[in-house]
Design the sequence.
């Protein structure tokens, strides 16, 4: 809070401060570039990426951990760091890094662009769209800011008023607290929604800001050693698998097959990828089980059935006429079912009122506010109950908040630039008025996606994109390209809006100014355009995309839905199975949604009782059995992802899920902060190590470096030999 006198002025957009420093910008850019290449690598392989908020904060801190404060060069002392990295600077590093790292999905580089590349004149009325460098820059820039300006006004109603958990954002804040050994400025208590464990720590006690000081030097040394070892092991194994590809695709299941290589033909090999094992650790066992169940159902039962009865006559891994192409339709039905159920659940939960909250924020944001320090003071104490009614904070002073004129003008300008840039990239294949409607729908869908993310930690980007595709089947009938563009805009808006709100949650808990995070998101997205275009160009020029090494499985999902909406043709017998899976996952999705709503209701009741000094009214034994195990019902998106990909990707993730489950069970009584941090560190090293090594793989492939041996490679299981 500032004392009497002239009011503090807002820092100009282009000027740094003690939170948004030049070193934070440089470090955030470096970390963001690594995340971008990692996401391009993982997304083009399996269609699953992560914004890596935790990894961004961890790697940002690690950079300054290993930079000496000063060094001597030719007898002269050179000061490298005049002061230690602060927790708020670390949050800014994470904000910039995740803004950059999310661009592969925001720009459609892992799904939409590969879908454009496989357009068929006979089916789609237009041939493949391979963007030139200029068109690729225009397309990426047109989508780069879609969700930023719409999300900013939602910070007050969703984070300050409703106290939505945004679990990943809260976990990132807790990690920053532990790294810097400082308590959170706004601690998360056990009774607050943000204390709910994330997937990677669901069986361990949640991290607490006040435990940060308990991390001694030996614990810190252990964690950094774990990061270095896990990153090095992942990196070295990935480079080795480039020279000996069969290490990345071990045909271990062939020994039980009657004809030697039968199971390999169906994608049953083991990929000991440390990156996918790390993803499994981060996802948690329930999600990994759902993904593996999808792989089993798709590739052990339905795919062979389709081939046996002649419904999928081509080779199993053929993405058009083989079992893979047939299974993708079932995965698409599951995703559409999830989208419909998810949107209906959000509307039933009252999400439509968010429109009025958004408009209300547009009128009241950053207007002069009374001093709520006295009213808000109890929240700053670790043992005090949260106060959902508190509306304003000291970080909401006008000079620290994002001005509404930036939001409104930014929304108008980014939409206009997006329409012009995308039209320039694709030509006149979509009407300008239709593209304006697509941006409007993206804003509405972004609002729904943000609420889902805040309550469940899952951003339904694929679901809202498919709803947009369905609507454009009416607005632009028969236009496959327009349908894909509409889905791309909706996905970009939902992804960016959700990512910014997670950052806002982190910043709120650590005490970072929203204006700084807003600036960091815009600058990060701008830098991400160049990094993503550069990275995707390297992949496109080095490999066939989609191809054996990088099949880009989501490309076929996008294109198949667009074709179905416009033509209505489906493979043999697929409609009956699509109907069954749609109904099944509509039911399971509804049960999961109801269980989650009941959990939130109990949570609110417990918090209210705790605030009044009353005993907990609802003990664990009173929770119905069905509700307690509802989380183990298959996740529709994870199940569909398991069906889309060959089983090797799911098996590696399942191994990671089992490891984190066993680890958390074993260390349940140990300090949650230490154990949760260690497992996150190891998983982060696994994921980022393979992403770093993928750059080496690109360089080797661009120079046409061949593997040392292709022993054991067959049927595309090791793309370097195919």
Sequence:
């Amino acid at each position: 809070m500032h004392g009497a006198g002239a009011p503090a002025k807002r820092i100009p957009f282009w000027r740094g401060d003690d939170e948004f420093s030049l070193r934070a910008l440089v470090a955030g850019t470096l970390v963001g570039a690594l995340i971008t290449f990692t996401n391009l690598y993982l997304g083009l392989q399996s269609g699953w990426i992560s914004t890596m908020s935790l990894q961004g904060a961890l790697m940002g801190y690690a950079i300054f951990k290993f930079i000496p404060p000063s060094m001597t060069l030719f007898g002269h002392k050179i000061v490298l760091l005049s002061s230690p990295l602060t927790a708020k600077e670390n949050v800014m590093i994470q904000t910039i890094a995740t803004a950059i790292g999310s661009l592969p999905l925001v720009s459609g580089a892992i799904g939409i662009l590969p879908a454009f590349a496989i357009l068929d004149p006979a089916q789609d009325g237009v041939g493949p769209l391979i963007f030139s460098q200029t068109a690729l820059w225009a397309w990426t820039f047109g989508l780069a800011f879609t969700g930023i300006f719409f999300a900013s006004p939602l910070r007050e109603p969703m984070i300050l008023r409703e106290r939505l958990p945004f679990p990943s954002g809260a976990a990132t804040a807790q990690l920053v607290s532990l790294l810097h050994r400082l308590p959170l400025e706004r601690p998360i208590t056990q009774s607050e929604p943000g204390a709910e464990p994330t997937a990677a720590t669901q069986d361990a006690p949640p991290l607490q800001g006040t435990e940060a000081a308990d991390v001694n030097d030996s614990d810190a040394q252990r964690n950094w050693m774990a990061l270095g070892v896990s990153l090095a092991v992942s990196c070295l194994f990935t480079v080795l698998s480039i020279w000996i590809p069969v290490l990345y695709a071990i045909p271990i299941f062939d020994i039980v097959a009657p004809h030697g290589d039968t199971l390999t033909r169906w994608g049953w090999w083991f990929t000991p990828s440390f990156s996918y094992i790390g993803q499994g650790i981060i996802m948690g066992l329930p999600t990994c089980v759902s993904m593996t169940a999808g792989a089993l159902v798709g590739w052990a039962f339905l795919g062979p059935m389709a081939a046996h009865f002649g419904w999928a006559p081509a080779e199993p891994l053929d993405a058009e006429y083989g079992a893979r192409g047939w299974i993708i339709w079932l995965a698409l039905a599951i995703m559409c079912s999830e989208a419909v159920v998810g949107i209906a659940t959000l509307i039933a939960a009252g999400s439509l009122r968010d429109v009025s909250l958004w408009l209300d924020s547009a009128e009241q944001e950053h207007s002069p506010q009374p001093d709520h320090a006295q009213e808000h003071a109890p929240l700053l104490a670790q043992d005090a109950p949260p106060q959902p009614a508190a509306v304003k904070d000291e970080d909401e002073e006008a000079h620290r908040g994002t001005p509404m004129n930036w939001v409104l003008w930014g929304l108008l300008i980014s939409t206009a630039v997006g329409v012009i840039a995308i039209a320039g990239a694709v030509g006149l294949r979509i009407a300008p008025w239709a593209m304006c409607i697509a941006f409007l729908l993206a804003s509405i869908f972004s609002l729904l996606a943000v609420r889902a993310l805040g309550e469940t930690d899952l951003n339904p980007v694929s679901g809202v994109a498919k709803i947009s595709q369905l609507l454009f089947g009416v607005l632009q009938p028969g236009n496959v390209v327009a349908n894909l563009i509409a889905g791309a805009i909706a996905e970009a808006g939902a992804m960016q809006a959700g990512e910014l709100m997670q950052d806002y949650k982190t910043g709120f808990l650590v005490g970072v100014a929203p204006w700084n995070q807003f600036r960091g998101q815009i600058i990060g997205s701008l830098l991400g355009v160049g990094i993503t275009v550069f990275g995707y160009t390297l992949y496109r020029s080095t490999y066939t995309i989609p191809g054996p090494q990088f099949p880009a499985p989501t490309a076929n999902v996008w294109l198949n839905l667009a074709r179905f909406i416009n033509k209505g043709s489906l493979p043999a017998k697929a409609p009956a199975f699509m109907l069954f899976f749609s109904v099944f996952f509509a039911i399971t999705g509804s049960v999961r949604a109801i269980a989650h709503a009941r959990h939130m209701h109990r949570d609110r009741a417990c918090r209210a009782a705790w605030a009044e000094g009353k005993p907990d009214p609802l003990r664990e034994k009173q929770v119905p059995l069905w509700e307690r195990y509802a989380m183990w019902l298959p996740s529709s998106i994870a199940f569909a992802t398991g069906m889309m990909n060959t089983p090797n990707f799911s098996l590696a993730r399942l191994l990671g899920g089992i490891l984190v489950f066993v680890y958390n069970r074993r260390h349940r009584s140990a300090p949650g902060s230490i154990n949760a941090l260690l497992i996150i560190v190891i998983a982060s090293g696994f994921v980022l190590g393979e992403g770093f090594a993928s750059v080496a793989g690109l360089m080797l492939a661009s120079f046409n470096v061949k593997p040392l041996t292709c022993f054991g490679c067959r049927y595309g299981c090791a793309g370097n030999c195919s």
Notes: Strands lie at 70-73, 76-79.
